[in-house]
Amino acid sequence: MSFKLKIRKTNAAVILALSGDITGNSVGKISAKLESIQKMYQGTIAIDLSETTFIDSHGLGVFVFFYRRLSEEKRKLVFLNPSEFILDLFSGSNLVKIFSIVNSEEEL
Questions:
Q1: Could you give the number of structural domains in the chain?
Q2: Which of 3, 6, 9, 19: CA 20 to 30 A from 28?
């Protein structure tokens, strides 16, 4: 599945919706977009993973990097509606212990 990203803003957060596979080929785009969002908005950033089919170690690395960066600013990075496969990936790498994960926008 080809990779796509979209941005939308709600009252609670800026949401970066990712679809397709997150691999070394797409992390540059994700990183640049997250950096831009971080500079433009001061609140919570949510990453919508509802249409994400796969994340490799490069993708996980970008998420960890921005999680730490936002945490240093006392801001939140939240993962929205990940599939069972993505949740298993986060569990297997113990990221469920540090990442904020919600199932709906109402929980932001």
A1: 1
A2: 9
Interatomic CA distance for residues 94 and 34, integer angstroms = 23
Structural tokens at position 58: 């490069």
CATH number at residue 95: 3.30.750.24
**Domain extent for 73:** 4-107
Per the CB < 8 A criterion, the answer to whether 100 and 13 are in contact is no
Using a cut of 0.90, tell me whether the model's pTM lies above it.
yes
Asked if residues 63 and 46 have their Cβ atoms less than 8 Å apart, the reply is no
CA gap 54, 105 in Å, rounded: 22
φ/ψ (deg, to 5) at 3: -85, 135
CA distance 81 to 11: 18
Calpha distance 30→7 (Å, rounded): 11
